[in-house]
Design brief:
Number of helices of chain B: 2
Oligomer: heterodimer
Distance between the termini of chain B: 33 Å
Number of strands of chain B: 7
CATH architecture of chain A: Beta Barrel
Strand content of chain B: 35-45%
Structural class of chain B: mainly beta
Largest interface: A-B, 61 and 65 residues
CATH architecture of chain B: Beta Barrel
Helix content of chain B: under 10%
CATH class of chain A: Mainly Beta
Strand order of the largest sheet of chain B: 2-3-4-6-5
CATH class of chain B: Mainly Beta
Number of domains of chain A: 1
Distance between the termini of chain A: 18 Å
Number of domains of chain B: 1
Radius of gyration of chain A: 21 Å
Largest sheet of chain A: 10 strands, mixed
Number of strands of chain A: 10
Helix content of chain A: 10-25%
Mean pLDDT of chain B: 84
Order of helices and strands of chain A: HEEHHEEEEEEEE
Structural class of chain A: alpha+beta
Shape of chain A: globular
CATH topology of chain B: OB fold (Dihydrolipoamide Acetyltransferase, E2P)
Number of helices of chain A: 3
CATH superfamily of chain B: Nucleic acid-binding proteins
Low-confidence stretches of chain A: 1-26
CATH superfamily of chain A: Calycin beta-barrel core domain
Radius of gyration of chain B: 14 Å
Chain lengths: 276, 132
């Protein structure tokens, strides 16, 4: 009888922990769903992309910029292969050292983000307290020699109900193009096409070109769903107490066959203690 | 006096769930084959970004005093799931289940924390690709 009670207690504890793990994931990603809410619009008639946006649980493999390619195989040039090998064996994840992830990496992240849209500018706000502020002006042209940056020189324009963000001028050091340590060079050119097909979804179609590291352009698409009204980006001072920086190894660690980071066969934790 | 112990667990393999990225990959810092349980007394708490840290005075299997640094998620993520700064009180004896750092230091990823009142909270970093 005592053994039965202990078993029951352990089962309850395990269920609570499982639900806790699900709840933890739900803070970041949520299941997708159909929406009949209309696309909200600005006074100028353009879609309003503003909102707190969370990834969907069917976005797989997460964090991998090759998500939409067969076998997640990126078309790396020999220089790109060498850069990937360098990232895996000689670099610590720049984001873990509190360096801006940049674009397109932030679009492949599992973390939610927030958009605030005005008539002539749009702001993307990210965890880590990073942001990008993009002018919406069809008449602006790229600079001849833009200062390299993590988000690049970004120009926004409307094509119908699609917000197009065209970016060049990226850095070529201390950058990973995604969570898996894939590389990009300073020749990176990113074209994001953002839409809000209904009130609850935001979607991006991304064209990625980098002739130094990739033999051909490739695409990355993704949909996010609207968070709850009280959810918003919170303060996250990455460099406040980055104790783990001294303990991190090179690269992201093992990549699983499903294209995600992490171990295939982690050891289980000790069994939970019975509740008092 | 409460019994203080450190238990190294050699474990059977299980499949871990895929999660998306956080501040850094679990696998870049921790060894998923080295699951451990540490019971100790809270000596210091840093409720900071990008991770919270709390420090335990514990004893190893030979009874020698040993200090452990326990890393959990970011304050915002933890508090949203109900793990609050006030749950960690200096002098409390708590039980931490997690994984050792790959570099062999006394740093661990505190994925499950049993508080002094018996409540169990998840300390996992949100979306780090670590074991569920």
């Amino acid at each position: 009888m005592t053994a039965m009670r202990a078993g029951l207690t352990s089962s309850v504890v395990l269920c609570v922990l499982a639900l806790s793990a699900v709840a933890t994931r739900a803070q970041l990603q949520v299941p997708d769903f159909k929406s009949n809410k209309p696309t909200p619009r600005m006074a100028n008639g353009k879609p309003d992309l503003s909102g707190y946006w969370k990834g969907t649980t069917d976005t797989k493999p997460g964090g991998n910029i090759g998500k939409d390619l067969p076998g997640w195989k990126l078309p790396l040039t020999p220089a790109g292969e060498a850069a990937l090998n360098h990232n895996l064996t000689a670099t610590i994840d720049p984001e873990s050292l509190c360096i801006i992830g940049g674009i397109p990496r932030h679009n492949a992240s599992g973390l939610p983000f927030e958009v605030l849209q005005g008539n002539n500018k749009i702001a993307f706000l990210y965890w880590y307290s990073y942001f990008r502020l993009i002018p919406i002006d069809p008449n602006r042209k790229h600079s001849d020699d833009p200062d390299p940056s993590f988000f690049g020189e970004e120009l926004g324009r409307w094509e119908g109900d699609t917000l197009v963000i065209d970016s060049i001028g990226f850095k070529d050091e201390k950058v990973w193009i995604d969570e898996n340590a894939n590389p990009h060079s300073d020749a990176l050119h990113v074209v994001e096409r953002w839409t809000r097909p209904d009130g609850d979804h935001i979607h991006v179609e991304t064209l990625i070109e980098d002739p130094k590291f990739y033999t051909r352009p490739f695409t990355y698409s993704r949909t996010w769903v609207l968070g709850k009204p009280d959810e918003e980006i919170m303060e996250y001072a990455c460099s406040e107490n980055n104790v783990d920086a001294a303990h991190l190894g090179f690269g992201p660690g093992p990549i699983r066959p499903d294209g995600t980071r992490g171990y295939i066969d982690p050891a289980p934790l000790p069994p939970p203690l019975p509740r008092k | 006096m409460k019994k203080i112990f450190l238990l190294l667990v050699v474990a059977v393999a299980t499949a871990g769930g895929a999660r998306l990225v956080a501040h850094h990959s679990f696998a870049a810092e921790f060894d998923a084959s080295k699951a451990i349980r540490v019971t100790g007394t809270l000596s210091k708490v840093e409720w900071t970004n990008p991770h919270i840290y709390f420090y335990l005075d514990a004893k190893d299997e030979q009874g020698n005093a040993v200090k452990w640094t326990c890393e959990s998620g970011a304050p915002g993520a933890l508090s949203r799931r109900g793990f609050k700064r006030g749950d960690l009180k200096l002098g409390d004896t708590i039980v931490v289940d997690g994984y050792r750092a790959k570099n062999g230091s006394n740093l661990m990823d505190a994925r499950r924390v049993t508080l002094a009142d018996g409540r169990i909270v998840s300390g996992a970093s949100a979306g780090d690709g670590g074991p569920q």
